[in-house]
Amino acid sequence: MAISSLWVGWLVAAVAVVAVAVPLWFQARKHWRMRALFGHPEPRPMPPQEWAARYYADPRMREIAAQFVVLLGEQVDVPLNQLTPRTRFLEDLEMVDLEPLELLLAIEQEFGSGRISEAAAARLQAIDDVVRYLAQVR
Predict the structure, then answer these.
(1) What is the pLDDT along the chain (138 residues), one digit of tens a residue?
(2) Residues in Cβ contact with 90 at an 8 Å cutoff, skipping those fewer than 6 apart
(3) Distance (Å, rounded) from C-alpha 138 to C-alpha 133?
(4) Shortest CA distance to 116 belongs to which of 107, 125, 126?
(5) How far is the C-alpha of 29 from the C-alpha of 101, rounded, in Å?
(6) Is there a contact between 130 and 124 (Cβ–Cβ < 8 Å)?
(7) CB distance 78 to 48 below 8 Å
(8) Quick one: pLDDT at residue 66?
(9) What is the CA radius of gyration of the chain?
(10) Mind giving me the DSSP string for 25-93?
(11) Within 13 Å and on the Cβ side, how many CA atoms surround 60?
(12) Do residues 71 and 114 touch, judged by C-beta distance below 8 A?
């Protein structure tokens, strides 16, 4: 009995798919295995100067912002790539209890800005507020 040309065409197509799919499957499996063994590579941490340059054009503000985000990172332990100038301390970083007060004390010590008044402290809600305040005071 003769095999029709339609069946031959389907058979050739199936062999071609298997010939392509099997090596790809083994390659993907090797990739998945390597990922399982070694995990994902850690992203390169962003330098504070690069972060500040991304958000501030003025060199003076850039210097203050870079210095402040280093201080903030030590206080709150948040990576720079999760921060923006609009990041709020209480709402976004979820600072609680004495953390905002400790941050104010660290700002006073680090920047030598003198004592920050209660009225000024109440206005410092986000990173940009602190950077602008320090630029004004310095």
Answers:
(1) 456 777 778 888 888 888 887 787 777 777 667 666 666 666 678 899 999 999 999 999 999 999 999 999 988 888 888 899 999 999 999 998 899 999 999 999 999 878 899 999 999 999 999 999 999 987
(2) 100, 125
(3) 9
(4) 107
(5) 52
(6) yes
(7) no
(8) 96
(9) 28
(10) HHHHHHHHHHHHHH-PPPPPPPPHHHHHHHH--SHHHHHHHHHHHHHHHHHH---GGG--TT-BTTTTS
(11) 7
(12) no
Tokens read off for 36: 């399982």
Cα separation of 78 and 89, whole Å? 11
In DSSP terms, 90 is beta-bridged to none
Give ∠ CA 95-98-101 in degrees, rounded to 5: 95
CB 125 within 8 A of CB 93: no
For tokens 């990739």, what's the residue?
A: 31
Please state, in angstroms and rounded to a whole number, the distance separating the CA atoms of residues 121 and 102.
Answer: 12
92: its two tokens: 């976004």
d(CA 66, CA 49): 5
Cα end-to-end distance, the chain, whole Å: 96
Quick one: pLDDT at residue 12? 83
- What pairs with residue 52 in β-bridges? none
Angle ∠(134,88,124) on CA atoms, nearest 5 = 35
